[in-house]
TrEMBL record, chain A:
Stated role: Non-catalytic component of the proteasome.
Family: Belongs to the peptidase T1B family.
Protein name per UniProt: Proteasome subunit beta
Classification via InterPro entries: Ntn_hydrolases_N, Proteasome_beta4, Proteasome_sua/b, Proteasome_suB-type
GO BP term, example: proteolysis involved in protein catabolic process
GO CC list: cytoplasm; nucleus; proteasome core complex, beta-subunit complex
Record flagged with keyword Metal-binding: no
Automatic annotation (TrEMBL), chain B:
Annotated protein name in UniProt: Proteasome subunit beta
Organism encoding this protein: Pristionchus pacificus (Parasitic nematode worm)
Location within or outside the cell: Cytoplasm; Nucleus
Gene Ontology MF, one: endopeptidase activity
Subunit structure: The 26S proteasome consists of a 20S proteasome core and two 19S regulatory subunits. The 20S proteasome core is composed of 28 subunits that are arranged in four stacked rings, resulting in a barrel-shaped structure. The two end rings are each formed by seven alpha subunits, and the two central rings are each formed by seven beta subunits. The catalytic chamber with the active sites is on the inside of the barrel.
Length: 233, 241
């Protein structure tokens, strides 16, 4: 509809090209984020091999679900903001970007002009005690919270319990265990989410690992129940 | 189309009313005739909105040893119709002491699907063999129009492969050529359609009866599609690694 003068974008009231769930898990020395690489146009898998994670700097990754066009605008805004901060010598901590994005998402929502995205901010927070992992979740309305594991989209309904079971009251996770939890989540997502794809990426950022996003081997899953599945009678 | 249902689907949080999205076999059904029978292929996904409620559904419903119905649309509607028509066909064949022809079976389906067209959301393919006309396919889309086809596709995934099927079809295809085409078509549809997925079920119906084969994604033989390499998503100066 009408883009405001000087505004970034027009009202997105109907998402078109969308991304489905993002799942992220904090481990002892970092955070791992999983997202698939398909762009859905309604229920059609329209474009493949498109990333839904953005490495902001060595310490922060932003991942999204929801409208792709809105996130590409957000990526432009983040890049611009990061270089403005760099001019004054500020290298971004994840919590700073998280706070900025929370305000941005909430303000846009208040103007009835939302970014149709749910954002996951994953990073390594530098502090005097050597640093700690950071994981933040910001919804389309501007609701924001930090967590040890989180999911967006249909995965937030289906898979949080599975991840909770693997992480609660257990010894601290390492990177390999965190990634295996995410792979298990991908398997369940392809079983139960129409919009999920088995081609996916895992982004990792931590104490010793600079932020980086890597394509993973596609997961096929176990289809042995199809052998015994009978008619509906 | 019935618009009243649209309003009834809206949630009313104040009353705690959250309507469930209709369970549908948004689906891929492919069928082809060859000399001596028919080849049928389906995916195995049943969805409720974007949730997959069943990932290994069997959408090929046998009516007799030589007749099956491929179901798409509302899962409940098609199951109910298939049960009723199966009963009718069994009764007629017992009373008349001979098998009911595929043509007559398709007309019985048509009777129900046309009469109740405003209450049903059902789109089916009747596939079978009889000694009178050999292998036959009858497509009955929503509304109840019935037409015999040599090669047909139905369901949400069908739109992605109509071009492929048009190009692949030629006269006098053999059974194995048909199986390859049908299998590839299911694989292509599943690649693109969010409402289709899971395993690939292929069936061959001929004088000997019905033979069903299962192709699982985690076993060899499943129709795969090669994914092209990725380009950059963001501007070229943005590196994700």
């Amino acid at each position: 509809m009408d883009g405001k003068y000087g505004g970034y974008h027009t009202n997105t009231l109907n998402p078109t090209c969308t991304g489905t769930s993002v799942i992220a898990v904090v481990y002892d020395e970092g955070v791992a984020v999983m997202s698939d690489t398909v762009v859905s146009y309604g229920k059609s898998a329209r474009y493949k091999n498109v990333t839904r994670q953005y490495k902001v700097n060595d310490r922060v990754i932003v991942a999204f679900s929801g409208d792709h066009a809105d996130f590409h605008t957000l990526q432009n805004i983040i890049e611009r903001q990061v270089s403005k901060w760099a001019v004054v010598g500020q290298k971004l901590n994840p919590s700073a970007l998280y706070a900025f994005l929370t305000s941005l998402m909430y303000q846009s929502r208040c103007k009835m002009n939302p970014f149709w995205n749910t954002l996951i901010i994953a990073g390594w927070e530098d502090n005097e005690d050597g640093g700690k992992p950071f994981l933040g979740h910001i919804t389309q309305k501007g609701v924001a919270f930090e967590a040890k594991h989180t999911a967006t989209g249909i995965a937030s309904h289906l898979l949080t319990q599975v991840i909770e079971d693997e992480t609660r009251d257990k010894t601290a996770l390492n990177r390999a265990k965190a990634e295996s939890i995410l792979r298990r989540a991908v398997e369940l997502a392809i079983y139960h989410d129409c919009l999920a794809d088995n081609e996916f990426e895992i982004g990792v950022v931590g104490k010793t690992e600079k932020a980086s996003v890597h394509t993973q081997k596609p997961i096929i899953g176990d289809w042995s129940i199809a052998e015994t599945n009978c008619q509906y009678e | 189309m019935d618009m009243m249902g649209e309003d009834m689907r809206k949630a009313i949080p104040a009353l705690g009313f959250y309507p469930q999205q209709e369970i549908s076999t948004g689906t891929t059904l492919i069928a082809m005739e060859y000399d001596g029978g028919v080849v049928i292929g389906t995916d195995s996904r049943t969805s409720a909105g974007s949730f997959i409620s069943s990932r290994t559904t069997n959408k090929i419903t046998p009516i007799t040893d030589n007749l099956s119905v491929l179901r798409s649309g509302s899962a409940a509607d098609t199951q109910a119709i298939a049960d009723i028509v199966k009963y009718y066909i069994e009764t007629y064949s017992l009373l008349e002491n001979e098998p009911v022809t595929v043509y007559r079976s398709s007309q019985i389906f048509r009777q129900f699907l046309y009469q109740y067209r405003d209450s049903l959301s059902a789109s089916v393919i009747i596939a079978g063999w009889d000694s009178k006309l050999g292998g036959q396919l009858y497509a009955i889309p929503i509304g109840g129009f019935t037409t015999r086809q040599r090669s047909t596709a139905s369901g949400s995934g069908s739109t992605y492969v109509l071009g492929y099927l048009d190009k692949a079809w030629r006269p006098n295809l053999t059974k194995d050529e048909c199986i390859e085409i049908v299998k590839t078509a299911v694989g292509l549809a599943v690649f693109r359609d969010g409402s289709s997925g899971g395993v690939c079920r292929i069936g061959v119906i001929n004088e000997q009866g019905t033979t069903l084969t299962l192709y699982r994604p985690d076993k060899p033989g499943f129709p795969t599609v090669t994914l092209p390499e990725a380009h950059n998503t963001y501007a070229t100066h943005v590196k994700n690694q």
